[in-house]
Amino acid sequence: MTTTHQTPAEILTHVDAGVMTLTLNRIDKKNSITAAMYGTLADALESANHDAAVRVVVIQGHESIFSAGNDIGDFLKNPPATQDSPVFRFLRGISSFPKPIVASVCGPAVGIGTTMLLHCDLVYAGDNAAFSMPFVNLGLCPEAASSFLVPQLMGYPRAAEALLLGEPFSAETALEVGLINRIVPPAEANALAQRQALKLVAKPLSSLLETKRLMKKGNAGIVAERMAEEGASFGRMLQEPAAREAFGAFMEKRKPDFSAV
Q1: Main-chain phi, psi angles of 11, to 5 degrees
Q2: Does pTM top 0.85 for this prediction?
Q3: Which domains does the chain have, with CATH numbers?
């Protein structure tokens, strides 16, 4: 049985042959993510967790753009005030999701567009993918436990370039440090993710669940604790002068001036 629904239009949810595919579908806004979209993603993951018909989740964007990160305008109107805010619900959901998650990434993957990949099991990227985590540039701190997972993955020096300088890095670098599994032409990335997902569907789910649990067990407690600490710092820093200057400059299309903050 195949089911398709679209709630809201910016997130497409499709279930077929044991695979739930979540597609970021706001291409005109560079797939920037709103609070409503985070809520939809969080709800979809919760549904997939409890649905025996779903054995694997695929997260994908368009071959030209994965995600520009948070929608800044929406973010300022709907800041994540509590740990139950949609963005934190999504991050907790993806970090603790017990079934395999496959991601397909093409074009820019900014902020949470990169950090969510730290919680996916298989990630395939187009050769046009560009990853960046510019939280410091917005007067903020990392999220999604990336302050722990990125140094662990990349080593401290490269993590410092990515998180302190906020410098973007290529698909080739992402492959070298182990953030992604393979690089393909952008037009092939989503199809590859689907093929790999179907390979997983054919395997015994109990073995997949237990293998993933065992692999993640060593970090699970640290990730949850770090995510909560980051969330508290993130919320506090949103109200501070540096973030106000960064977001004001973004909305006014000017260069921020952090000399007084």
Answers
A1: -120, 120
A2: yes
A3: 3-186 (3.90.226.10)
